TrEMBL record:
InterPro entries xref list: Beta-glucanase-like, ConA-like_dom_sf, Glycosyl_Hydrlase_16
Gene this chain is encoded by: BGBP_4
GH16 domain segment(s): 192-518
Protein name: Beta-1,3-glucan-binding protein
SUPFAM superfamilies according to UniProt: Concanavalin A-like lectins/glucanases
Transmembrane segments: 166-187
Span list, region Disordered: 1-111
PROSITE patterns the UniProt entry points to: GH16_2
Residue spans of biased composition, Low complexity class: 1-15, 93-108
Family in the record: Belongs to the glycosyl hydrolase 16 family.
Organism expressing this protein natively: Grifola frondosa
Length: 518
């Protein structure tokens, strides 16, 4: 009796026999075996019916009694139903595959066999050989709302919510409108210089000391008590590779250090100072006098070009030592050569100012100055463009861009009033009443209503307060009568901080340009 094939039902009560022994290659003549069909032909039925009926034509159209093609994933018919079908025949023994007598042949026009699902409970394999088949997840219950949902925010109007909505956007629009208005009025109030025409341009292909630059030679200190003497020596001012160098050097390199301190008389060559006492000096240790310990250069356009209203532009790299200026002037740029750690603004600051006053010792510069600072570098690290714009309405001094301005001053009140000078000042034992010396000049503009010329120099030290007492390692006091002597005696200390490279020690100028209003 042939046992019935296993059912394809997924019922947990059905069983599945274990796998048979896999035949070895020596037992089979063929290397491949045809698949065993779920729908097979019963040999007993074929033998009993072989003599009564002719073989069924596989290409014939099945009649109505033949069951339709089963759906592969539906529950298949029972085995008994398959046996009772007249279209199912068992393959005779002489037609079976040589590979195995148990191999079964399926009609090529039959549907694919249904694949039986196996569950863990159906398997008769030992626990160690069970496949790791996950259980089917139970379908989650739907959480979708089936009834009617209430939406009170649709039917009920929230006044406060609407107010907050419009208030938020209203404030944003007000902010945008305020920004536009501010930008408009700032643009309207921007100070413009107007049309300008070129006056002078020097890119220093040569050092023109005949027609452009005047070299000043003096030991007088230029009103600031400076410690250098200015010379016309090529050691202190020269042109190289299209750049102008103004370099401070030691006087001891020329006359010796001992002569700087004592027992030497020095007369400067080609003195240009009108004060004869500023053309020579005597060193005397008993009197506490010395020869100016530093030589430098000071050049100007005093005899060639001047400017009343216009623009000046200088591209330069600053030195790494001390610098100075003098009263009654427009300082396009002033800077100290001390490092960024200096407590009174070192070489990471540049300052623009207007120097003016009733007397040299009564200066109003404290009311007309400003500065710009470089946070990450110093102005001695690279070239920068220093500019002055000057009109009858304003003065603006800036570095590189108008946005980085050091000083912007409108001429909107008299300078005598701006200075807030006292009615009477004391000069020793004398009392001097103060009057407006610019009353006859251009209202609100005088004393800056006259032509000015350009000066470039590198100064060392001074007693005018540019280097405050008690800041850094300053080796002198401004009020001391021996300030320059004290400075000269400590030459070994301050000179060791000077760069030995000429390019770092010098003020290096790339070009100078001047324009006038036209």
């Amino acid at each position: 009796m042939v046992s019935s094939p296993p059912s394809t039902s997924s019922s947990s009560s059905s069983t599945h026999p274990g796998p048979g022994r896999i035949p070895s290659r020596s037992e089979n003549d063929e290397s491949l075996h045809p698949p065993k069909s779920v729908f097979f032909i019963d040999p007993r039925w074929a033998s009993s019916e072989a003599g009564d009926e002719s073989p069924h034509d596989p290409f014939s159209t099945p009649d109505a009694s033949v069951p339709g093609t089963p759906i592969p994933f539906s529950t298949p018919a029972s085995v008994s139903a398959l046996r009772s079908s007249p279209e199912i025949r068992e393959v005779p023994s002489n037609m079976r595959s040589r590979a195995s007598s148990s191999s079964q042949v399926r009609n090529s026009f039959m549907p694919p066999p249904a694949i039986r699902r196996t569950t863990l409970r159906e398997s008769t394999l030992p626990n160690s050989a069970l496949p790791n088949v996950p259980r089917l997840a139970k379908r989650a219950r739907s959480t979708m709302l089936t009834g009617e949902t209430e939406k009170p925010w649709v039917t009920e109007k929230d006044t406060y919510a609407k107010l907050s909505y419009w208030l938020t956007y209203g404030v944003a629009l007000i902010g945008i409108a305020a920004a536009v208005i501010r930008c408009y009025f700032a643009w309207k109030q921007t100070l413009l210089i107007g049309n300008i025409c070129p006056v002078m341009t020097d890119e220093f292909d040569t050092f023109d000391t005949e027609n452009t630059w005047f070299q000043e030679s003096s030991l007088g200190g230029f009103g600031n008590g400076e410690f250098e003497m200015t010379t016309n020596s090529p050691n202190n001012s020269f042109v190289k590779d299209g750049l102008l160098y103004i370099v401070p050097t030691l006087t001891s390199d020329v006359i010796g250090y001992e002569n700087v301190l004592n027992g030497y008389t020095y007369n400067i060559t080609g003195c240009t100072d009108k004060n004869a006492t500023a053309c020579g000096a005597v060193s005397n240790s008993t009197a506490g006098t010395v020869i100016n310990p530093v030589m430098s250069a000071r050049i100007s356009t005093r005899n060639s070009y001047s400017l009343q209203y216009g623009k000046v532009e200088i591209r330069a790299k600053l030195p790494r030592e001390t610098g100075s200026g003098q009263p009654c002037e427009i300082d396009i740029m002033e800077s100290r050569g001390n490092g960024p750690e200096y407590g009174a603004q070192g070489d990471n600051y540049v300052r623009g100012s207007l120097n003016w006053g009733l007397f040299p010792w009564l200066n109003g510069v404290s009311k007309t100055f400003g500065w710009w600072t470089n946070r990450r570098k110093t102005f001695a690290d690279d070239f920068h463009i220093y500019s002055l714009e000057w009109t009858p309405q304003f003065i603006r001094i800036y570095v590189d861009s108008r946005l980085t301005y050091m000083l912007t001053l409108r001429f909107n009140e008299p300078f005598f009033k701006r200075g807030d000078f006292p009615a009477i000042v004391a000069n020793g034992s004398n009392y001097i009443p103060t009057t407006d010396p610019w009353a006859q000049g251009t209202p609100n503009v005088a004393p800056f209503d006259k032509p000015f010329y350009l000066i470039m120099n590198v100064a060392v030290g001074g007693t005018n307060g540019w280097f405050p007492d008690g800041v850094g390692d300053k080796p002198w006091l401004d009020g001391s009568l021996t300030a320059m002597t004290d400075f000269a005696h400590l030459q070994s200390e301050w000179y060791s901080s000077w760069p030995q490279n000429i390019e770092d020690r010098a003020l290096v100028v790339d070009y100078v340009k001047m324009w006038k209003l036209c």
